[in-house]
Amino acid sequence: MADFVGAVDQGTTSTRFMIFDHGGNEVARHQLEHEQIMPQAGWVEHNPIEIWERTVAVVRTAMQKADLSASDLAAVGITNQRETTVVWDRRTGRPYYNAIVWQDTRTDRIASALDRDGRGDVIRRKAGLPPATYFSGGKIQWILENVDGVREAAERGDALFGNTDSWLLWNITRGSHVTDVTNASRTMLMNLETLDWDDELLSFFGIPRSMLPEIRPSSDPTGYGVAHVDGPLGGDVPLTGDLGDQQAATVGQVCFSPGEAKNTYGTGNFMLLNTGTKLVRSENGLLTTVCYKFGDAAPVYALEGSIAVTGSAVQWLRDQLRIIKSASESESLASRVPDSGGVYFVPAFSGLFAPYWRSDARGAIVGLSRFNTDAHIARATLEAICYQTRDVVDAMAQDSGVTLDVLKVDGGITVNNLCMQIQADVLGVPVSRPVVAETTALGAAYAAGLAVGYWKNTEELRENWNESQRWQPNWTPEQRDQGFGRWKKAVQRTLDWVDVD
Ligand code: ADP
């Protein structure tokens, strides 16, 4: 058996390739950003060709850094930004249009129409998702309706849809059109019980079945196709792991038992709670999603709380308000004051995701008085990340009956000690971060390695998880209740602000 496992992590802002050893330790990595294309307000696109070229470059460079060749890799996994939609021509391999990114809100009319005639409830029941601009189905419909020639190409069977996992696998294998259950569960097109595309759901969006990839397990011993020898890996490495990024992080955090959860803090925040083989339908604004499916074993489901704006609110302080020069400065600026001085910031820049799902909301900073400074605004931004998480944690407790005794965290913001301390204070439970913070890539590597027997079972993976840091809650229950009560009031002020009908 070869010594290492690789993982492509195709994220919203960058693509990286990471190589891990049997202990789950990082051996090498390379990462490259790609352009964020914003043609108009609310639109966010990526160039799929650029993403493919970056993928080739990061794989080759990481392999060179580690001085490895294809035969040193036991398997390779892929994990990806979810929902982001690519439609390309089967004959030429050219995309018909840029990738429409998960954050893009151009489909708000498509999404709100679904809730006016009962289709929304069918989507909730069958796909486990509330109709929203977030998911792929509306984005595919938009491309079919707005890009010349795509509808005809789709009817002929020439137009293919994929999230970026499918797009990369199609290119790496030169022609294998596949995805995994976790990615498929983010389209509004897959039935959560049959794990197959659902004709009724497809009809809601006018999407021909021939556009869709084959749905496979997230860890698949048969592999997703043969890596082309002229591709970035330079040889036939088993391609045996494929998961959406948040599900991959859940695997990387070894949340394999029902009741175990992780929260990832990046551009947005995504908390997933493993609910086992039980499909739990949310009554409190969470998504029901597939957590993973390993080979022939039964699928494992999760409840998910997705928050659109967390790290990107810190970027907004840096790029738009310009009160900090780097994201890390948010910590030193916020530390200048002991609290937010009564200020609450609800960063509903593109509406609110979980648990509210209100596309009519817009951002607000409330509670301002003349006393307040940039430091209070920075602190309110970090608090907003934590209060949004509290909203999601509360919804999870109501839906599942599970109360957390510790919150496992990962992602770019978790280097911010103050933010993690506030998180423990706001929740009243300890917050714990693992040594290997790259849980997304690690989870994809785990899925790939499990499929080929590089790792024997999930117990072996659990042994790789080690804590690096833990934050204990300090606030009194009164402080916690008062702060959260004001946050809830602030959220109310942001609702029903824009007209989306
Ligand atoms: P993604 O995978 O979504 O691209 P990352 O996990 O790389 O995100 O995290 C990047 C996000 O974290 C950015 O939005 C950035 O603003 C935020 N961030 C990075 N460092 C810090 C910090 N020290 N304090 C607060 N936010 C941070």
TrEMBL record:
GO molecular function: ATP binding; glycerol kinase activity
InterPro entries recorded: ATPase_NBD (IPR043129), Carb_kinase_FGGY (IPR000577), Carb_kinase_FGGY_CS (IPR018483), FGGY_C (IPR018485), FGGY_N (IPR018484), Glycerol_kin (IPR005999)
Name of the top EC class for this enzyme: transferase
SUPFAM superfamilies the UniProt entry points to: Actin-like ATPase domain (SSF53067)
Keywords: ATP-binding, Glycerol metabolism, Kinase, Nucleotide-binding, Transferase
A Gene Ontology biological process term: glycerol-3-phosphate metabolic process
Residues where ADP binds: T12, R16, T267, G311, G412, N416
A single GO cellular-component term on record: cytosol
Domain Carbohydrate kinase FGGY C-terminal: 262-451
Residue ranges occupied by any Carbohydrate kinase FGGY N-terminal domain in the UniProt entry: 6-252
NCBIfam families for this protein: glycerol_kin (TIGR01311), PRK00047.1 (NF000756)
Reactions catalysed: glycerol + ATP = sn-glycerol 3-phosphate + ADP + H(+)
Pathway membership, UniProt: Polyol metabolism; glycerol degradation via glycerol kinase pathway; sn-glycerol 3-phosphate from glycerol: step 1/1
Activity regulation as described: Inhibited by fructose 1,6-bisphosphate (FBP).
EC numbers on record: 2.7.1.30
Organism: Actinoplanes utahensis
Binding residues annotated for glycerol, in chain numbering: R82, E83, Y134, D245, Q246
Name assigned to this protein: Glycerol kinase
Gene that this polypeptide is encoded by: glpK
Amino-acid positions noted as binding ATP in the UniProt annotation, renumbered to this chain: T12, T13, S14, T267, G311, Q315, G412
Protein role: Key enzyme in the regulation of glycerol uptake and metabolism. Catalyzes the phosphorylation of glycerol to yield sn-glycerol 3-phosphate.
Family from the record: Belongs to the FGGY kinase family.
Annotated residues for binding of sn-glycerol 3-phosphate: T12, R82, E83, Y134, D245
PROSITE patterns xrefs: FGGY_KINASES_1 (PS00933), FGGY_KINASES_2 (PS00445)
